[in-house]
Specification:
This protein is mainly beta. The protein contains one helix and 29 strands. Helix content is 1%, strand content 39%. The protein is globular and about 65 Å long. The structure holds 2-acetamido-2-deoxy-beta-D-glucopyranose (10 copies).
Protein backbone atom coordinates (compact mmCIF):
# COMPACT_ATOMS: atom_id res chain seq x y z
CA UNK A 1 0.00 0.00 0.00
CA UNK A 2 1.39 3.39 -0.94
CA UNK A 3 2.23 5.65 1.94
CA UNK A 4 0.25 8.52 0.42
CA UNK A 5 -2.84 6.34 0.63
CA UNK A 6 -2.42 5.82 4.37
CA UNK A 7 -4.46 8.79 5.48
CA UNK A 8 -4.13 10.50 8.80
CA UNK A 9 -3.17 8.96 12.11
CA UNK A 10 -5.88 9.68 14.64
CA UNK A 11 -4.52 10.54 18.06
CA UNK A 12 -5.17 12.63 21.11
CA UNK A 13 -3.17 15.71 21.92
CA UNK A 14 -2.54 14.92 25.54
CA UNK A 15 -0.47 17.94 26.55
CA UNK A 16 -2.49 20.05 28.96
CA UNK A 17 -5.78 19.66 27.20
CA UNK A 18 -8.49 19.40 29.74
CA UNK A 19 -6.52 20.50 32.77
CA UNK A 20 -6.95 24.22 32.48
CA UNK A 21 -10.08 25.99 33.48
CA UNK A 22 -11.91 28.00 30.83
CA UNK A 23 -14.78 29.96 32.24
CA UNK A 24 -17.99 29.54 30.31
CA UNK A 25 -21.17 30.66 31.99
CA UNK A 26 -23.84 28.04 31.80
CA UNK A 27 -27.14 27.53 33.48
CA UNK A 28 -27.71 24.70 35.87
CA UNK A 29 -29.41 21.73 34.27
CA UNK A 30 -30.42 18.23 35.10
CA UNK A 31 -27.46 16.02 35.94
CA UNK A 32 -29.50 13.33 37.62
CA UNK A 33 -27.62 10.17 38.33
CA UNK A 34 -24.21 11.81 37.89
CA UNK A 35 -21.75 10.89 40.64
CA UNK A 36 -18.81 13.31 40.60
CA UNK A 37 -16.14 12.71 43.19
CA UNK A 38 -13.24 15.10 43.74
CA UNK A 39 -10.71 12.86 45.47
CA UNK A 40 -8.93 14.31 48.49
CA UNK A 41 -11.30 17.29 48.63
CA UNK A 42 -12.06 18.32 52.22
CA UNK A 43 -15.75 17.65 52.90
CA UNK A 44 -16.70 21.25 53.56
CA UNK A 45 -15.38 22.29 50.12
CA UNK A 46 -17.94 20.50 47.89
CA UNK A 47 -18.48 22.78 44.88
CA UNK A 48 -20.27 23.24 41.59
CA UNK A 49 -17.94 23.52 38.58
CA UNK A 50 -18.20 26.99 37.04
CA UNK A 51 -17.63 25.73 33.50
CA UNK A 52 -20.00 22.74 33.54
CA UNK A 53 -22.28 23.26 36.60
CA UNK A 54 -21.44 19.70 37.63
CA UNK A 55 -21.58 19.25 41.42
CA UNK A 56 -18.43 17.68 42.82
CA UNK A 57 -18.35 16.13 46.27
CA UNK A 58 -15.58 14.98 48.56
CA UNK A 59 -14.52 11.32 48.45
CA UNK A 60 -14.65 11.12 52.26
CA UNK A 61 -17.71 8.84 52.31
CA UNK A 62 -16.32 6.46 49.70
CA UNK A 63 -12.99 5.44 51.22
CA UNK A 64 -11.35 5.07 54.63
CA UNK A 65 -7.71 4.99 53.58
CA UNK A 66 -5.26 7.38 51.94
CA UNK A 67 -4.48 11.01 52.63
CA UNK A 68 -5.72 14.27 51.18
CA UNK A 69 -3.16 16.51 49.45
CA UNK A 70 -3.35 19.78 47.58
CA UNK A 71 -1.46 20.20 44.28
CA UNK A 72 1.14 22.96 43.79
CA UNK A 73 0.10 26.11 41.93
CA UNK A 74 1.20 25.72 38.29
CA UNK A 75 1.61 29.41 37.46
CA UNK A 76 0.48 32.82 38.59
CA UNK A 77 -2.24 33.39 36.08
CA UNK A 78 -3.13 29.81 35.31
CA UNK A 79 -6.07 28.13 36.96
CA UNK A 80 -6.37 24.39 37.05
CA UNK A 81 -9.82 22.81 36.87
CA UNK A 82 -11.21 22.99 40.38
CA UNK A 83 -11.82 19.23 40.57
CA UNK A 84 -8.07 18.65 40.09
CA UNK A 85 -6.91 20.89 42.96
CA UNK A 86 -6.76 18.02 45.43
CA UNK A 87 -5.69 14.39 45.16
CA UNK A 88 -5.96 11.43 47.48
CA UNK A 89 -2.66 9.57 47.74
CA UNK A 90 -2.03 6.12 49.15
CA UNK A 91 1.33 5.91 50.95
CA UNK A 92 0.18 2.81 52.90
CA UNK A 93 -0.90 -0.59 51.65
CA UNK A 94 -0.51 -2.18 48.24
CA UNK A 95 -4.14 -2.01 47.12
CA UNK A 96 -6.57 0.68 48.22
CA UNK A 97 -10.17 0.58 47.00
CA UNK A 98 -13.07 2.97 46.79
CA UNK A 99 -16.59 1.69 47.33
CA UNK A 100 -19.18 3.64 45.35
CA UNK A 101 -22.90 2.89 45.35
CA UNK A 102 -24.44 2.52 41.90
CA UNK A 103 -27.68 1.26 40.36
CA UNK A 104 -27.33 -2.43 39.54
CA UNK A 105 -27.99 -3.10 35.86
CA UNK A 106 -27.56 0.51 34.72
CA UNK A 107 -24.88 1.15 32.12
CA UNK A 108 -22.35 3.78 33.22
CA UNK A 109 -19.56 5.76 31.68
CA UNK A 110 -16.93 5.62 34.43
CA UNK A 111 -14.00 8.01 34.23
CA UNK A 112 -10.98 8.26 36.51
CA UNK A 113 -8.50 11.13 36.20
CA UNK A 114 -5.00 11.69 37.47
CA UNK A 115 -3.25 15.05 37.70
CA UNK A 116 -0.04 14.84 39.72
CA UNK A 117 0.49 18.59 40.08
CA UNK A 118 3.61 17.92 42.19
CA UNK A 119 1.33 17.54 45.24
CA UNK A 120 4.16 15.88 47.23
CA UNK A 121 6.74 18.47 46.20
CA UNK A 122 9.05 15.67 45.01
CA UNK A 123 8.69 16.35 41.27
CA UNK A 124 8.57 12.62 40.67
CA UNK A 125 5.37 11.52 38.97
CA UNK A 126 4.63 7.94 40.01
CA UNK A 127 3.46 4.98 37.96
CA UNK A 128 0.88 2.60 39.39
CA UNK A 129 -2.00 0.34 38.42
CA UNK A 130 -5.69 1.01 38.34
CA UNK A 131 -7.94 -1.95 39.08
CA UNK A 132 -11.68 -2.44 38.95
CA UNK A 133 -12.44 -4.85 41.76
CA UNK A 134 -10.28 -7.85 40.91
CA UNK A 135 -9.86 -6.82 37.25
CA UNK A 136 -6.75 -5.02 36.01
CA UNK A 137 -8.01 -1.88 34.30
CA UNK A 138 -4.80 -0.08 33.24
CA UNK A 139 -1.37 1.24 34.20
CA UNK A 140 -1.15 4.94 34.95
CA UNK A 141 2.09 6.81 34.32
CA UNK A 142 1.30 10.16 35.91
CA UNK A 143 3.98 12.17 34.09
CA UNK A 144 1.08 13.71 32.14
CA UNK A 145 -2.55 14.42 32.93
CA UNK A 146 -4.34 11.10 32.37
CA UNK A 147 -7.95 10.07 32.10
CA UNK A 148 -9.25 6.53 31.79
CA UNK A 149 -12.79 5.61 30.85
CA UNK A 150 -14.82 2.48 30.68
CA UNK A 151 -18.41 1.80 29.75
CA UNK A 152 -19.62 -0.77 32.21
CA UNK A 153 -22.86 -2.24 33.55
CA UNK A 154 -22.51 -3.24 37.21
CA UNK A 155 -24.22 -6.41 38.41
CA UNK A 156 -23.97 -5.38 42.05
CA UNK A 157 -25.08 -2.23 43.84
CA UNK A 158 -21.59 -0.86 44.30
CA UNK A 159 -18.32 -0.69 42.35
CA UNK A 160 -14.74 -0.71 43.61
CA UNK A 161 -12.09 1.22 41.68
CA UNK A 162 -8.70 0.49 43.27
CA UNK A 163 -5.22 2.00 43.20
CA UNK A 164 -2.37 -0.50 43.29
CA UNK A 165 1.23 0.27 44.26
CA UNK A 166 3.62 -1.46 41.82
CA UNK A 167 6.84 -0.13 43.35
CA UNK A 168 7.11 2.99 41.17
CA UNK A 169 5.93 5.64 43.59
CA UNK A 170 2.86 6.40 45.66
CA UNK A 171 -0.47 5.93 43.83
CA UNK A 172 -2.94 8.83 43.85
CA UNK A 173 -6.19 9.81 42.13
CA UNK A 174 -7.83 13.13 41.26
CA UNK A 175 -11.43 12.38 40.27
CA UNK A 176 -13.92 9.57 39.74
CA UNK A 177 -16.96 10.37 37.61
CA UNK A 178 -19.94 8.14 36.87
CA UNK A 179 -22.52 8.98 34.19
CA UNK A 180 -25.54 6.76 33.63
CA UNK A 181 -26.09 5.94 29.95
CA UNK A 182 -29.02 4.55 28.07
CA UNK A 183 -28.61 0.75 28.13
CA UNK A 184 -29.52 0.60 24.43
CA UNK A 185 -26.25 2.23 23.32
CA UNK A 186 -22.64 1.00 23.43
CA UNK A 187 -23.88 -2.57 23.48
CA UNK A 188 -21.36 -5.42 23.81
CA UNK A 189 -21.88 -9.17 23.77
CA UNK A 190 -21.80 -9.45 27.57
CA UNK A 191 -21.53 -7.24 30.66
CA UNK A 192 -18.03 -8.66 31.14
CA UNK A 193 -16.92 -7.17 27.80
CA UNK A 194 -16.13 -3.64 28.84
CA UNK A 195 -15.50 -0.78 26.43
CA UNK A 196 -12.31 1.16 27.10
CA UNK A 197 -12.22 4.58 25.46
CA UNK A 198 -9.37 4.67 22.96
CA UNK A 199 -10.24 8.03 21.42
CA UNK A 200 -13.13 10.44 20.99
CA UNK A 201 -12.64 13.28 18.52
CA UNK A 202 -14.61 16.28 17.34
CA UNK A 203 -13.48 16.30 13.70
CA UNK A 204 -12.98 19.63 11.94
CA UNK A 205 -13.28 21.69 15.13
CA UNK A 206 -13.04 25.40 14.39
CA UNK A 207 -12.96 26.55 18.02
CA UNK A 208 -10.21 24.15 19.14
CA UNK A 209 -12.12 23.71 22.43
CA UNK A 210 -13.10 20.45 24.01
CA UNK A 211 -16.78 19.87 24.71
CA UNK A 212 -18.44 17.90 27.51
CA UNK A 213 -21.51 18.36 29.73
CA UNK A 214 -23.76 20.18 29.27
CA UNK A 215 -23.19 20.19 25.53
CA UNK A 216 -23.03 16.41 25.95
CA UNK A 217 -25.89 15.02 28.06
CA UNK A 218 -23.71 11.99 28.93
CA UNK A 219 -20.65 14.15 29.74
CA UNK A 220 -18.44 12.43 27.19
CA UNK A 221 -15.40 14.61 26.56
CA UNK A 222 -14.83 15.41 22.87
CA UNK A 223 -11.32 16.52 21.96
CA UNK A 224 -10.92 18.94 19.04
CA UNK A 225 -9.23 17.48 15.99
CA UNK A 226 -8.02 19.50 13.02
CA UNK A 227 -7.30 17.47 9.96
CA UNK A 228 -4.46 18.83 7.86
CA UNK A 229 -5.15 19.10 4.15
CA UNK A 230 -8.91 18.64 4.51
CA UNK A 231 -11.63 21.20 3.97
CA UNK A 232 -13.52 22.32 7.08
CA UNK A 233 -17.29 22.47 6.89
CA UNK A 234 -19.50 24.02 9.52
CA UNK A 235 -23.05 25.15 10.15
CA UNK A 236 -24.90 26.72 13.04
CA UNK A 237 -25.19 24.22 15.84
CA UNK A 238 -28.87 23.40 15.79
CA UNK A 239 -29.30 19.71 15.20
CA UNK A 240 -32.91 19.17 14.33
CA UNK A 241 -32.93 15.46 14.82
CA UNK A 242 -30.94 13.64 17.51
CA UNK A 243 -30.35 9.91 17.59
CA UNK A 244 -29.96 7.68 20.63
CA UNK A 245 -26.19 8.19 20.80
CA UNK A 246 -26.91 11.87 21.47
CA UNK A 247 -23.72 13.40 20.09
CA UNK A 248 -23.55 17.10 21.06
CA UNK A 249 -24.92 19.51 18.43
CA UNK A 250 -21.82 21.67 18.66
CA UNK A 251 -19.62 18.67 17.87
CA UNK A 252 -21.88 17.65 14.98
CA UNK A 253 -21.89 21.18 13.54
CA UNK A 254 -18.37 20.77 12.16
CA UNK A 255 -16.96 18.22 9.74
CA UNK A 256 -14.19 17.72 7.25
CA UNK A 257 -14.41 16.69 3.65
CA UNK A 258 -11.91 15.92 0.89
CA UNK A 259 -10.63 18.90 -1.08
CA UNK A 260 -10.40 16.67 -4.16
CA UNK A 261 -13.97 15.46 -4.58
CA UNK A 262 -13.00 12.05 -5.88
CA UNK A 263 -10.39 11.33 -3.18
CA UNK A 264 -11.43 9.25 -0.18
CA UNK A 265 -11.29 10.44 3.46
CA UNK A 266 -8.88 8.08 5.15
CA UNK A 267 -7.50 7.61 8.64
CA UNK A 268 -5.85 4.83 10.59
CA UNK A 269 -4.78 3.75 14.04
CA UNK A 270 -2.33 1.13 15.21
CA UNK A 271 -2.98 -1.72 17.61
CA UNK A 272 -0.39 -3.06 20.06
CA UNK A 273 -1.83 -6.52 19.78
CA UNK A 274 -3.49 -8.07 16.70
CA UNK A 275 -5.92 -9.91 18.97
CA UNK A 276 -7.34 -6.67 20.36
CA UNK A 277 -10.94 -5.97 19.43
CA UNK A 278 -12.12 -2.46 18.60
CA UNK A 279 -15.56 -0.91 18.30
CA UNK A 280 -15.73 2.03 15.90
CA UNK A 281 -18.43 4.73 16.06
CA UNK A 282 -18.59 7.19 13.15
CA UNK A 283 -20.89 10.20 13.43
CA UNK A 284 -22.45 12.07 10.52
CA UNK A 285 -24.61 15.13 10.02
CA UNK A 286 -25.06 16.87 6.67
CA UNK A 287 -23.90 20.42 7.30
CA UNK A 288 -24.63 21.77 3.81
CA UNK A 289 -28.03 22.39 2.31
CA UNK A 290 -27.73 20.43 -0.90
CA UNK A 291 -29.22 21.60 -4.15
CA UNK A 292 -31.62 19.24 -5.90
CA UNK A 293 -28.89 18.32 -8.36
CA UNK A 294 -26.41 17.42 -5.61
CA UNK A 295 -25.97 14.16 -3.72
CA UNK A 296 -23.57 13.00 -1.05
CA UNK A 297 -23.26 9.24 -0.67
CA UNK A 298 -20.27 7.17 0.34
CA UNK A 299 -19.21 3.70 1.33
CA UNK A 300 -16.95 2.82 4.25
CA UNK A 301 -14.22 0.21 4.11
CA UNK A 302 -11.88 -1.00 6.84
CA UNK A 303 -8.59 -2.41 5.57
CA UNK A 304 -10.11 -2.35 2.10
CA UNK A 305 -13.03 -4.59 3.08
CA UNK A 306 -16.57 -3.25 2.76
CA UNK A 307 -17.82 -2.18 6.23
CA UNK A 308 -20.95 -0.12 5.65
CA UNK A 309 -22.69 1.86 2.96
CA UNK A 310 -23.90 3.76 1.27
CA UNK A 311 -24.08 6.49 3.95
CA UNK A 312 -26.27 9.40 2.88
CA UNK A 313 -26.14 12.01 5.67
CA UNK A 314 -29.34 13.94 6.30
CA UNK A 315 -29.31 17.71 6.71
CA UNK A 316 -29.16 18.60 10.43
CA UNK A 317 -29.75 15.05 11.66
CA UNK A 318 -27.37 12.91 13.68
CA UNK A 319 -26.49 9.53 12.24
CA UNK A 320 -24.13 6.95 13.74
CA UNK A 321 -22.53 3.99 12.03
CA UNK A 322 -21.03 1.61 14.58
CA UNK A 323 -19.63 -1.81 15.33
CA UNK A 324 -21.44 -4.37 17.39
CA UNK A 325 -20.43 -7.63 18.95
CA UNK A 326 -20.89 -9.43 15.63
CA UNK A 327 -18.58 -7.03 13.82
CA UNK A 328 -15.70 -5.97 16.06
CA UNK A 329 -12.54 -4.88 14.26
CA UNK A 330 -9.82 -7.38 15.05
CA UNK A 331 -6.89 -9.32 13.64
CA UNK A 332 -4.81 -6.42 12.32
CA UNK A 333 -1.84 -4.36 13.49
CA UNK A 334 -3.24 -1.31 11.73
CA UNK A 335 -6.82 -0.37 10.97
CA UNK A 336 -7.28 1.86 7.95
CA UNK A 337 -10.74 3.35 7.48
CA UNK A 338 -11.70 4.82 4.10
CA UNK A 339 -14.80 6.79 3.23
CA UNK A 340 -15.17 6.82 -0.58
CA UNK A 341 -17.90 8.52 -2.55
CA UNK A 342 -20.14 6.23 -4.54
CA UNK A 343 -20.10 6.42 -8.29
CA UNK A 344 -23.16 8.67 -8.56
CA UNK A 345 -22.41 10.97 -5.65
CA UNK A 346 -21.66 14.54 -6.71
CA UNK A 347 -20.09 15.45 -3.38
CA UNK A 348 -17.19 13.91 -1.43
CA UNK A 349 -17.63 12.12 1.93
CA UNK A 350 -17.79 13.95 5.26
CA UNK A 351 -16.99 12.97 8.83
CA UNK A 352 -18.19 14.92 11.89
CA UNK A 353 -16.93 12.89 14.86
CA UNK A 354 -15.42 9.55 15.75
CA UNK A 355 -15.13 7.31 18.80
CA UNK A 356 -12.99 4.21 19.08
CA UNK A 357 -13.24 1.79 22.01
CA UNK A 358 -11.16 -1.25 22.80
CA UNK A 359 -12.81 -4.29 24.33
CA UNK A 360 -11.45 -5.41 27.67
CA UNK A 361 -12.48 -8.55 29.49
CA UNK A 362 -13.59 -7.89 33.08
CA UNK A 363 -14.57 -11.41 34.02
CA UNK A 364 -12.90 -11.33 37.44
CA UNK A 365 -15.02 -10.26 40.38
CA UNK A 366 -16.12 -6.64 40.18
CA UNK A 367 -15.52 -6.19 43.88
CA UNK A 368 -12.19 -6.32 45.67
C1 LIG B 1 -20.09 17.12 50.80
O1 LIG B 1 -20.34 15.87 50.15
C2 LIG B 1 -20.39 14.79 51.06
C3 LIG B 1 -20.54 13.54 50.24
O2 LIG B 1 -19.28 13.03 50.00
C4 LIG B 1 -21.54 14.95 52.04
O3 LIG B 1 -21.56 13.86 52.93
C5 LIG B 1 -21.30 16.25 52.80
O4 LIG B 1 -22.40 16.49 53.65
C6 LIG B 1 -21.16 17.42 51.83
N1 LIG B 1 -20.79 18.57 52.61
C7 LIG B 1 -21.37 19.74 52.46
C8 LIG B 1 -20.87 20.85 53.33
O5 LIG B 1 -22.27 19.90 51.66
C1 LIG C 1 0.02 37.62 34.98
O1 LIG C 1 -0.85 38.66 34.53
C2 LIG C 1 -0.32 39.95 34.73
C3 LIG C 1 -1.35 40.99 34.36
O2 LIG C 1 -2.33 40.45 33.51
C4 LIG C 1 0.98 40.12 33.91
O3 LIG C 1 1.54 41.38 34.13
C5 LIG C 1 1.97 39.03 34.34
O4 LIG C 1 3.11 39.08 33.52
C6 LIG C 1 1.34 37.64 34.23
N1 LIG C 1 2.24 36.66 34.82
C7 LIG C 1 2.56 35.54 34.20
C8 LIG C 1 3.47 34.61 34.94
O5 LIG C 1 2.14 35.24 33.09
C1 LIG D 1 -24.28 2.68 50.04
O1 LIG D 1 -25.35 1.79 50.19
C2 LIG D 1 -25.34 1.14 51.47
C3 LIG D 1 -26.40 0.08 51.44
O2 LIG D 1 -27.57 0.55 50.84
C4 LIG D 1 -25.55 2.19 52.54
O3 LIG D 1 -25.53 1.58 53.82
C5 LIG D 1 -24.43 3.20 52.47
O4 LIG D 1 -24.66 4.26 53.38
C6 LIG D 1 -24.34 3.79 51.08
N1 LIG D 1 -23.14 4.61 51.00
C7 LIG D 1 -23.13 5.87 50.56
C8 LIG D 1 -21.81 6.57 50.54
O5 LIG D 1 -24.13 6.44 50.18
C1 LIG E 1 6.62 7.54 32.88
O1 LIG E 1 6.73 8.13 31.58
C2 LIG E 1 7.84 9.01 31.47
C3 LIG E 1 7.75 9.69 30.12
O2 LIG E 1 7.49 8.76 29.11
C4 LIG E 1 9.13 8.24 31.65
O3 LIG E 1 10.24 9.11 31.57
C5 LIG E 1 9.12 7.57 33.03
O4 LIG E 1 10.25 6.75 33.19
C6 LIG E 1 7.86 6.72 33.21
N1 LIG E 1 7.79 6.28 34.61
C7 LIG E 1 7.92 5.02 34.94
C8 LIG E 1 7.88 4.70 36.40
O5 LIG E 1 8.04 4.12 34.12
C1 LIG F 1 -28.30 -7.23 39.92
O1 LIG F 1 -29.26 -7.42 38.89
C2 LIG F 1 -29.25 -8.71 38.34
C3 LIG F 1 -30.24 -8.77 37.21
O2 LIG F 1 -30.47 -7.51 36.67
C4 LIG F 1 -29.57 -9.73 39.39
O3 LIG F 1 -29.46 -11.04 38.83
C5 LIG F 1 -28.59 -9.62 40.55
O4 LIG F 1 -28.97 -10.48 41.59
C6 LIG F 1 -28.57 -8.19 41.06
N1 LIG F 1 -27.53 -8.09 42.06
C7 LIG F 1 -27.69 -7.45 43.20
C8 LIG F 1 -26.52 -7.48 44.14
O5 LIG F 1 -28.71 -6.86 43.47
C1 LIG G 1 -33.18 4.77 25.66
O1 LIG G 1 -33.17 4.56 24.26
C2 LIG G 1 -34.36 3.97 23.76
C3 LIG G 1 -34.13 3.64 22.32
O2 LIG G 1 -33.64 4.74 21.63
C4 LIG G 1 -35.51 4.94 24.01
O3 LIG G 1 -36.70 4.36 23.56
C5 LIG G 1 -35.61 5.25 25.49
O4 LIG G 1 -36.59 6.21 25.72
C6 LIG G 1 -34.28 5.74 26.02
N1 LIG G 1 -34.36 5.88 27.46
C7 LIG G 1 -34.03 6.99 28.09
C8 LIG G 1 -34.13 6.96 29.56
O5 LIG G 1 -33.65 7.98 27.49
C1 LIG H 1 -9.61 24.17 9.30
O1 LIG H 1 -9.75 24.88 10.49
C2 LIG H 1 -8.61 24.87 11.30
C3 LIG H 1 -8.96 25.58 12.59
O2 LIG H 1 -9.55 26.81 12.36
C4 LIG H 1 -7.45 25.52 10.57
O3 LIG H 1 -6.29 25.43 11.36
C5 LIG H 1 -7.22 24.79 9.26
O4 LIG H 1 -6.20 25.43 8.52
C6 LIG H 1 -8.49 24.77 8.46
N1 LIG H 1 -8.27 23.98 7.25
C7 LIG H 1 -8.39 24.48 6.03
C8 LIG H 1 -8.09 23.56 4.88
O5 LIG H 1 -8.72 25.64 5.84
C1 LIG I 1 -8.14 13.30 -6.94
O1 LIG I 1 -8.24 12.02 -6.33
C2 LIG I 1 -8.27 10.94 -7.29
C3 LIG I 1 -8.57 9.66 -6.50
O2 LIG I 1 -7.73 9.52 -5.39
C4 LIG I 1 -6.95 10.92 -8.02
O3 LIG I 1 -6.96 9.90 -8.97
C5 LIG I 1 -6.71 12.27 -8.69
O4 LIG I 1 -5.44 12.31 -9.27
C6 LIG I 1 -6.83 13.40 -7.69
N1 LIG I 1 -6.77 14.68 -8.38
C7 LIG I 1 -5.97 15.65 -8.00
C8 LIG I 1 -6.07 16.93 -8.77
O5 LIG I 1 -5.20 15.53 -7.05
C1 LIG J 1 -21.17 0.95 -2.22
O1 LIG J 1 -21.83 -0.09 -1.56
C2 LIG J 1 -22.96 -0.60 -2.24
C3 LIG J 1 -23.58 -1.65 -1.35
O2 LIG J 1 -24.20 -1.06 -0.26
C4 LIG J 1 -22.53 -1.20 -3.56
O3 LIG J 1 -23.67 -1.62 -4.28
C5 LIG J 1 -21.77 -0.17 -4.35
O4 LIG J 1 -21.24 -0.76 -5.51
C6 LIG J 1 -20.64 0.43 -3.56
N1 LIG J 1 -20.06 1.52 -4.34
C7 LIG J 1 -18.76 1.68 -4.46
C8 LIG J 1 -18.30 2.85 -5.29
O5 LIG J 1 -17.97 0.95 -3.90
C1 LIG K 1 -25.91 5.78 -11.25
O1 LIG K 1 -26.45 6.59 -12.30
C2 LIG K 1 -26.68 5.87 -13.49
C3 LIG K 1 -27.13 6.87 -14.55
O2 LIG K 1 -28.12 7.72 -14.02
C4 LIG K 1 -27.71 4.78 -13.22
O3 LIG K 1 -27.90 4.01 -14.40
C5 LIG K 1 -27.20 3.87 -12.14
O4 LIG K 1 -28.17 2.92 -11.78
C6 LIG K 1 -26.84 4.67 -10.90
N1 LIG K 1 -26.20 3.81 -9.93
C7 LIG K 1 -26.57 3.73 -8.65
C8 LIG K 1 -25.81 2.80 -7.79
O5 LIG K 1 -27.47 4.42 -8.21
Amino acid sequence: MKKTMMGTLLHFLTVLLGVLSILVLVQAQDQSGFISIACGLPEHLNFSSKSTTINYISDANFIDTGVSNRIQPIGNNITVLQQLEYVRSFPNGVKNCYKINVTNGTKYLIRASFFYGNYDNLNEPPQFDLHFGANVWDTINASLYRTREIIYTPSQDYIQPCLVNTGNGTPFISTIELRPLNNTIYVTDSPKSVLLRFLRLDIGSITNLQYRYKDDVYDRIWAPFQWDGKKNLSTNNDLLLQNNHKPPSIVMSTAVTSVNASAPLQFYWDSDDVNDQYYLYLYFNEVEELAASETRAFNITVNEKFWYGPVIPTYRAAYTVYSNSATPLTGAARYQVSLSKTENSSLPPILNAVEIYKIKDFSESETA
